[in-house]
Amino acid sequence: MSAFRAGFAALVGRPNVGKSTLLNALVGEKLSIVTPRPQTTRHRIIGLVNLPEAQIAFVDTPGLHEGGRRALNQALNRTAASALNDADLVLLVVEALRWQREDELALRRIVASGRPAIAVVNKVDRARPKERLLPFIAELAQRHPFRAVVPVSATGGDNLGPLRQAIVAELPESPPLFAPEDRTDKSLAFRVAETVREKLTLELNQEVPYGIAVEVESMGEEDGHTVVSAVIWVDREGQKPIVIGAGGARLKRVGTAARRELNALTGRRFHLTLWVKVRENWADNAQALKALGLE
């Protein structure tokens, strides 16, 4: 009988290649928020997969990117780089038929780390023309001695089984690193704050997402409900009315959408109270980033 394997597999790549969607698909549960906006993921998030022969601790990371002058951008790159350096195995997630400068940046980080790597070609269901897919995969295999190159569709759930098996083959022999009932290393308060931020980002579209952070101030049980008070931080006074909306309508929509999703995800009944406050230029302030758990 083969030995049990366990280890950390970091999902690394440029923004918007689908790392968070892939984590959620591999784990079978929504742990990372997903929006069309780059740099939605700001934290290192662990999602656990327990198999008969192995335990995989997937680590979702912020997208590695260039040109970020704000303290927040620099903190996101540091978070991604540190997760890569702590991993047993790195998954370089790329988008089918699209190799860009920031993909090259991510690959250089992997080479520098010396970690074994698997290339994951995501969004193959959207690849057009299809006949370019095999040459793209062959070209990717030439860029680095990857242990495997696996095409997948995170949204469609295609080819995830073979990807899991390729990962297990590269993990060290080890007893489980986490209890079998664990799904993530993040608290319920973290998931509440992230769900609110996701709904806000989707609602605001192009307006202010980079200047927004969400912090849970209090959470408790009351009359069968999980009662939460959370603050939405914006970094300029002029953003506050945008977030609140006419007559508070936008804030109400965000709260309703977040509450419904949290109810569905956790099986609890949530009561959310949201406040909007200004913390001037928090995304450029190292102390503020630390206070918000972003450093």
Features of this protein?
GMP Synthetase, Chain A, domain 3, alpha/beta, globular, Rossmann fold, 295 residues, three-stranded mixed β-sheet, 9 helices, six-stranded mixed β-sheet, 9 strands
Describe the structure.
- With 295 residues, the protein is an alpha/beta fold.
- The protein has 2 domains: 5-170, Rossmann fold, CATH 3.40.50.300; 188-291, 2-Layer Sandwich (GMP Synthetase, Chain A, domain 3).
- Helix content is 36%, strand content 23%.
- The protein has helices spanning 19-27, 71-86, 101-113, 133-143, 160-170, 188-204, 240-244, 249-266, 286-291, and strands spanning 5-12, 45-51, 54-60, 89-95, 117-122, 148-151, 212-222, 225-234, 270-278.
- The protein has a 6-stranded mixed sheet, sandwiched between helices. A 3-stranded mixed sheet has the order 7-8-9.
- The longest helix has 18 residues, at 249-266.
- It starts with a strand and ends with a helix.
Low-confidence stretches: none
Number of strands: 9
**Outline:** globular
Question: Mind telling me the CATH superfamily name of the largest domain?
Answer: P-loop containing nucleotide triphosphate hydrolases
Query: Judging by the overall fold, what is the CATH architecture of the largest domain?
Result: 3-Layer(aba) Sandwich
Overall number of domains? 2
Order of helices and strands: EHEEHEHEHEHHEEHHEH
| Average residue-wise pLDDT | 90
